[in-house]
Design goal:
427 residues, alpha/beta, Glucose Oxidase, domain 1, 15 helices, 35% helix
Length: 427
């Protein structure tokens, strides 16, 4: 039986929320300010407020980091403790984010749980948050790489970002219809403003079929191996994902062998491999299949290749550390994960309530004080609503619903039964 993982889930990012951009590693914004401006504009177009860490634009003498480890850690913790900041977005990857880990305060992060978004080398922070704070985070959609995309962010990437961070309920991952296979040094300001054409068909391939459920963890293959050395996670029964940087010339068989030397790849619940822009998708699937057969042999779990993960565009944004279901007949999905009652605010409750009403009465747009029963709803629908809310950790009784059978009424009833949020008490 798969093990359910009781990982803390950060509060949903609400419309108009405040996103703080920090640079835990590489000073990418200092090298290409126009790309950072495009990324900020894309976030603001989605309705978010944007600010930057105090040292996010710093540049060390060796050109490898956005300030000292202390400055970068201070920026991260300042975003955590600032009550006006709702989410933390890494500007990009690099090679030095591991330096800030000993300088972070896990207890303070846990008490102020906020969404963190980052990809590639940010796996160091994802692993830290998961194993030392027991906090889920979000992998994918780089601030500079994806939101700063020349010609504008790909619409699918924006959609995945909103679905993962802002919407309650189950998260299903659909393949994009087509993707770019262009990879160039966007750190070069003379070429970074060239839009990337989407010339390759989308879709995934299955090396092995089946169904598996487990904790969703992984990262860029080379960094992931080092993280396993640092955190020694138990990956048995997990849904493990990996992808490869375009500038990583190591053969996939060697990358898999490095992982296999550190963890039992035969004991997974599933494996997901991101697409590689250097290879046509069918060729990449064949390369991965051969490497897996050579290193692990036959496996009894599903293996998806050419997922929209890693250094590709458009790309998924996925909850790191939550349970995932990988099914060759359905794809990849993350079941609705109940948040702690203390993490729900009225905006998140209303979004879930309105979503449930829309599913119960799809031809009727209930809002505000519209009465569910007078618009065609019945007691069976009421019970479905109660069950859906309770499965997400939200209290509602039949008496509550009958007394106020409207979107406004249900939200008010739920909020009245929730424990007072700690951050509200402190303000």
């Amino acid at each position: 039986m798969p093990v359910e993982h009781a990982v803390q889930r950060p509060t949903l990012l609400k419309p108009g929320g405040h996103i703080r951009v920090v640079s835990p590693s590489y000073p990418s914004m200092s090298y290409v300010p126009p790309r950072a401006k495009r990324a900020e504009t894309a976030l603001r177009a989605l309705g978010f407020r944007v600010s930057y860490g105090e040292h996010a634009w710093e540049l060390t003498d060796d050109g490898r980091s956005a300030g000292s480890p202390e400055q970068r850690a201070d920026d991260f913790m300042a975003a955590v403790t600032d009550p006006d900041v709702d989410a933390i977005f890494s500007a990009g990857g690099g090679g030095t984010s591991w330096e800030i880990l000993p300088l972070l305060d896990g207890m303070t992060i846990s008490k102020n749980a906020k969404p963190f978004i980052g990809e590639c080398e940010n796996v160091w922070l994802h692993q830290y948050l998961l194993h030392e704070v027991n906090l889920a985070s979000y992998y994918g959609a780089g601030f500079m790489t994806d939101f700063g995309e020349a010609g504008g962010i790909f619409p699918e990437t924006a959609k995945f970002f909103i679905k993962a961070l802002c919407e309650p309920g189950e998260l299903s991952c659909e393949p994009v219809p087509d993707r770019t296979n262009l990879s160039y040094n966007w750190m070069d300001p003379t070429i970074e403003a060239t839009p990337r054409a989407r010339l390759v068909g989308g879709g995934w391939q299955w090396i092995n079929e089946g169904r598996g459920k487990g904790q969703f963890v992984g990262g860029e293959a080379a960094y992931l191996a080092r993280c396993i050395d640092r955190f020694a996670p138990d990956l048995d029964g997990s849904v493990l994902f990996w992808h490869v940087m375009p500038n990583n010339g190591a053969p996939p068989v060697d990358l898999l062998r490095d992982l296999a030397e550190r963890t039992d790849l035969s004991a997974l619940a599933g494996m997901i491999v991101g697409t590689d822009v250097r290879h046509d998708p069918p060729k990449w699937a064949a390369i991965v299949a051969a490497a897996l057969a050579d290193v692990v042999g036959s496996v009894d779990y599903p293996v998806m290749v050419n997922a929209d993960l890693g250094h590709t565009g458009p790309g998924w944004v996925l909850p790191y550390g939550l349970d995932a279901v990988l099914d060759s007949s359905l794809g990849l999905r993350f079941p609705a994960s109940p948040m702690s009652p203390s993490t729900w605010d009225e905006t998140a409750v209303r979004a879930l309530v309105e979503q449930q009403f829309a599913e119960l009465l799809p031809s009727t747009r209930l809002a505000g004080t519209d009465n569910f029963f007078s618009r065609g709803g019945d007691s069976f629908g009421m019970l479905r609503m109660i069950s859906a809310l309770q499965s997400n950790g939200l209290p509602l009784t039949a008496r509550d619903f009958v007394a106020r059978p409207t979107p406004d009424g249900v939200v008010a009833s739920v909020m009245a039964r929730l424990p007072e949020r700690a951050d509200v008490r402190e303000r």
